[in-house]
Amino acid sequence: MSVRVSTVPEINRPGVGVVKVSTWRVGTPERQCAAVDAISGAWRSRDWPDGGLLSYSVLVGEDGESLLHYSQWRDETAYQDFVRTGRDERNAEIDAAVPGIERLGLASYELYRSGEPAEGDTRVPGCVVIVDVEFEGPDPARQRAWTDTVFAALDHDPYERSGGIAAHFHASTDGTRVLNYAEWENAEGHIEALNSPGDGVGSSTEQWEKVQNFPGLAGSTVKRYTPAISLAGG
Fold it and tell me: How many other CB atoms sit within 10 Å of the CB of residue 4?
């Protein structure tokens, strides 16, 4: 099977049973570019894995040293089959081109809820903001309740964030985290939203206070990325 190349994945594509998210530290902007080129070469020179992998995307960190990997799989079994049969040879080729990559862990998620673009909005994301939220111990019901509280806050927010396109909330399969894959037109739009009244993206409202002081919330991080490449079977 051939490989189709685009810039961003279709987050709500059908058939996705599990999403894998990981980070690589490569060190410099030049090595970020070299690693993306090596990833593209390693994947496009081989047949697409049969059946289970739906998409594989790489984003470049604004920090100048990291890459975010976002892959969509039919199920966990499909991912484990790929680990046994296809991952090592690709990584070996990438490591030969860019020695010294640090692989900083892998987490599994299921997409829970999305705030989709408005009808007719055809903008392509130029920036992806990853909001990684951690809770005090596993609790799937709490993951969903916190996410629903965010959507309630957004519905009552008086400040319009014109640079935002969509937000996709993923619940980790271990019950401890929520990851928001937020698509923005560009980084400037997100920076403008951060500078609006309130604490981060979110006005000073009662609803946002509930989000920020949610029981069991341990902390969160916010990082910006630029979409680099998204691959899928063709």
Answer: 13
How would you write the pLDDT of the chain (234 residues) with one tens digit per residue? 678 899 999 999 999 999 999 999 999 999 999 999 999 999 999 999 877 999 999 999 999 999 999 999 999 999 999 999 999 999 999 999 999 999 998 999 999 999 988 788 889 999 999 999 999 999 999 999 999 999 999 888 776 667 899 999 999 999 999 999 999 999 999 998 888 765 555 567 889 899 999 999 999 999 999 999 999 986
Q: For the whole model, what pTM was predicted?
A: 0.94
Length of the chain: 234
Q: Which of 148, 145, 87 is nearest to 114 (CA)?
A: 148
Is residue 233 within 8 A of residue 4, CB to CB? The reply is: yes
Burial degree of 150 (CB within 10 A; 0-12, 13-18, 19+): buried
Cα–Cα–Cα angle for 164, 170, 172, rounded to 5 degrees: 150
**HSE toward the beta carbon, residue 55, CA cutoff 13 A:** 22
Q: 92: which residues sit within 8 A by CB, 6+ positions away?
A: none
Name the region of 29 (left: φ>0; alpha: ψ -120 to 50; beta: rest). alpha
How far is it, in rounded angstroms, from Cα 218 to Cα 146?
A: 12
Q: How far from the centroid of its chain's Cα atoms is residue 198's Cα?
A: 24
